TrEMBL record:
PROSITE patterns: TAT
UniProt name for this protein: SnoaL-like domain-containing protein
Signal peptide: none
Stretches assigned to the SnoaL-like domain: 45-144
UniProt cross-references to SUPFAM superfamilies, sorted A to Z: NTF2-like
Top-level taxonomic group: Bacteria
Gene3D superfamilies, A to Z: 3.10.450.50
C-alpha cells in the first residue's frame, strides 16, 4: 500500500533532516542524535503554540514594543505593521479568515530565526501555501518579522477576496 504524503509532510521531513544535520555538525557529533533547541527557536515554537490557541491578545507577550512585521504583496493586508497594536490588528484580521499555521522547519543563528510553515485559511477556504518568515529576536521578544510567500500571486488573490476595500464613495466619506 502506498501512503500519500502532503506537501507539508514532505517539507517537514526535509526540515527535520536539515536540522539534524546542522545540529550534528554544530555539536560535533556528525549525527542527528543530540538536538537541543536554540532559545530563540523555543521562543518561536511558543509563539506558534499561542497563535494556534486563537487568542490574539496572547501574542502580545512575544512582541517588542517597537516590532516591525512586514507582509509582502499587493493586497489590503500587505505592508509593514509597526508597533504591537498594528501587529495585533493584523493578526485579528487573519483570525477573521480562520488563518492557521503549521510549523515545518525552524533554525536559529544569532538573533535570527528562520521559519518555514504551512499557512492556510478556513473562512473562506482557498489559500494553502508554504510561507517562510525571518524573525529577529532581541531580549526574548520578536522585534522584526519578514514574511515570504511561496506563491505571492495566490496570496494576493486570496487577500483581495477575503478583505475587499469598501466602494469608493464609502472610503471617501470616511475621510
Amino acid at each position: 500500500m502506498t501512503e500519500h504524503l502532503s506537501r507539508a509532510d514532505v517539507l517537514r521531513g526535509l526540515g527535520a533532516t536539515a536540522v539534524g544535520v546542522v545540529a550534528g555538525s554544530l555539536l560535533g557529533t556528525g549525527t542527528a542524535s543530540a538536538t537541543v533547541d536554540h532559545p530563540n527557536v523555543k521562543l518561536i515554537k511558543d509563539y506558534y503554540a499561542a497563535y494556534a490557541s486563537g487568542d490574539v491578545a496572547a501574542l502580545r507577550r512575544f512582541f517588542a514594543d517597537d516590532i516591525r512585521w512586514t507582509i509582502p504583496g499587493h493586497h489590503p493586508l500587505s505592508g509593514t505593521k509597526v508597533g504591537i497594536d498594528e501587529v495585533l490588528a493584523f493578526f485579528a484580521e487573519l483570525a477573521e479568515a480562520g488563518f492557521r499555521a503549521e510549523p515545518i522547519f525552524l533554525a536559529a543563528d544569532g538573533d535570527w530565526v528562520v521559519d518555514l510553515h504551512r499557512g492556510w485559511s478556513t473562512r473562506p477556504a482557498g489559500l494553502d501555501i508554504t510561507w517562510a518568515l525571518a524573525f529577529r529576536i532581541r531580549a526574548r521578544r520578536i522585534v522584526e518579522a519578514v514574511n515570504f510567500a511561496a506563491d505571492q500571486h495566490a496570496a494576493d488573490r486570496f487577500f483581495w477576496q477575503a478583505y475587499p476595500l469598501a466602494p469608493i464613495p464609502n472610503r471617501l466619506a470616511a475621510r
